[in-house]
Amino acid sequence: MKTEVSCDQKKIKGCNLLSLLFGRHNRSSSKKSIPNRKPAVPSSPAKTRPPSSSHPQRRTHLNASQLVVHKSKPAAAPEKRKQVTTPGNGLSGELDMMIYDYQKAKGNSKLVRASSSNVMVYGQLGNIWGMNSGINGGMGNIVRSKAEQKASTPPVLCRALSKRTDPEKLKEMGNEEFNAGRLSEALALYNKAIMLDPEKASYWNNKAAALAGMGRLIEAIKECKEAVKIDPSYSRAHYRLATLYLRLGEAEKAVHHYKQSRKVADTNDITRATNLQMHILRCSEARKLKEWHSMLKESQSAISSGADSAPKVFALHAEALLRLGRHEEAHSVLKNAPKFDTDAIINFFGSAVNGYILMIQAEVDLASGRFNEAVALVERADKHQNNREISAVVRRVKAVASARNKGNEFFKFSKYSDACTAYGEGLHHDPLNAILLCNRAACHSKLGQWEKAIEDCNTVLILKPSYAKARLRRADCFAKLEKWEASAQDYQILTREFPADEDVAKALLNAKSHLQRKS
Fold first, then answer.
1. CA geometry: angle at 480 spanning 478 and 486, to 5°?
2. Could you write out the DSSP letters of every residue in 156-215?
3. What is the distance between the terminal CA atoms of the chain, rounded to a whole angstrom?
4. pLDDT tens for each residue of 131-180
């Protein structure tokens, strides 16, 4: 038999992390919320509870860790499409997540929202002010008994909530995710720890580690700076900051923070940063003197010294290859270079560095035949810049693109002589443009100028050995001049690249048959 306890009962100690305030409902609404519940049988008529309207309004403080779901049976209704409930926001969202964790621990991942019609309270879990036997006033279905308190306490709920409110626990969970390679999950946990305790330098440092692992180096530097700001003597944060600066090619800053990290960094770290500083300086000097081989060597050494994510160093490397006529390699370097948002580059490296990177990218695109992309890039590079070099590149890129469009129009209408002249105008601005050279070779071929066509194709294949169109055009010109051996060699290479091409296979057989006749 349940005994009634007064409302000023001593508060039970527990998690004391989250509380809900419930008011009194009328009797009719409480009855509707639990249609299948049997009324409590009083021990005697004298102890029968008076109607709820006669009771003074009573408030019950409930700790959220004491709530588990008690699903009531709904009335029969037409079958509806099943909906998936997801956790909400704010206080109810925290409760939802807590219930979800409990259900998951019990082997049931289905989430049911807590409401005034499906909540049962278990004792000895938190701070409850109310009746020990039964509370039938406001909620209508909150029941507690000492036997149930001891038998049915779910400690998982307290642990789940305490982990989400303990920043050290969140950091430990983040470390576990980081070590398992789940960087996004680790980042989210570090962020939660920072929200709870933003003055802990190690949380910011760990967040920087996660960002660096995801390739977001500039963001990682920002978090490391925050850690050093909180604790200027934090050696590990200084060391991580130095390593990030080294990877981004900021050698001078890397040296400074390696020295600040004291015993964490050794002499090899400082030596590597000093060497990087020397290679970048030499690379810039070689560029001024147009010593492209030296520039290529120093840029490669800078990347090997640790600047594996420095956009400017990669641009210097690509420019050296471009000036040496190694267009395909230059394209490959920029294709595999680290990618950063334009705004991030401007904010971190400055607008001058961003303009230089865009200029080199535009020149590589121009050499690869992406004329429209090249024009768009140089226009972006020239924006808000007062740089003579970039302005000159803008004029050159636009002139080459215009000449190519003009030549294509003439070629379309079989005006091969005019098209040849137009392509020549573009080559005046960019003598080693493989696309314009190949297009001019096509015009020479149409005009019967086989030797000139072969000459242009030879230049193209030096610049771009894998340019199949130029090799095919040269093979055809060799055949027209009855140079069957040279023609057969080109067709042989093409059959390896395009084994299913029947026209190439027939041309190869034709060249070989003429060789046999001559022999």
1. 20
2. HHHHHHHHHH-HHHHHHHHHHHHHTT-HHHHHHHHHHHHHH-TT-HHHHHHHHHHHHHTT
3. 117
4. 333 333 333 343 444 444 444 445 544 444 455 678 999 999 999 999 99
How far is C-alpha 331 from the geometric centre of its chain's CA atoms? 23
Determine the 3-state secondary structure of 25 from DSSP. coil
d(CA 57, CA 141): 16
Q: What is the DSSP secondary structure assignment for residue 396, as one 8-state letter?
A: H
Element (H, E) at 68: strand 67-69
Helix axes 251-260, 267-288, angle to 10 degrees: 170
From the number of C-beta atoms within 10 Å of its C-beta (0-12, 13-18, 19+), residue 44 rates as exposed
Sign for the CA dihedral angle at 237, 243, 247, 249 comes to positive
- In the chain, % helix, strand, coil (3-state, to 5) comes to 65, 5, 30
Q: Would you say 350 and 249 are in contact if contact means Cβ atoms under 8 Å apart?
A: no
Q: What 3-state DSSP class applies to 39?
A: coil
Q: Which two tokens stand for residue 380?
A: 């972006």
Dihedral angle at the C-alpha atoms of 361, 363, 368, 371, nearest 10 degrees?
A: 100
CA 431/CA 463 separation, integer angstroms: 11
Q: What is the pTM of this model?
A: 0.67
- On the CB side of 225, CA atoms within 13 Å amount to 9
Question: Per residue in 424-441, is it b (16+ CB within 10 Å) or e — as a string?
Answer: ebbbebbebbbbbbbbbb
At residue 359, φ and ψ (nearest 5 deg) are -65, -45
In tens, the pLDDT along 227-264 reads: 999 999 999 999 999 999 999 999 999 999 999 998 89
Segments in the chain below pLDDT 70? 1-164, 384, 519
